[in-house]
Specification:
about 80% helix, mainly alpha, DUF6381 family protein, DUF6381
Amino acid sequence: MSVAGESGGRAQQLRAKAQELNEAAERATDPEQRQRLQDKARRLREQSEQESAMRDRGMDPMV
């Protein structure tokens, strides 16, 4: 797999994990735990977006 494909795969993995965390947050009964899960999901989405943007500009974040 190419380096670009690998970083694209990582961005996709981050988005999938963020989705899992959002779903866990929806099921959480403790408000503090729900907030922590939502915050972590948001950070993962932001990281995924940054990596996608860097890849789109031709800059590999893994280098």
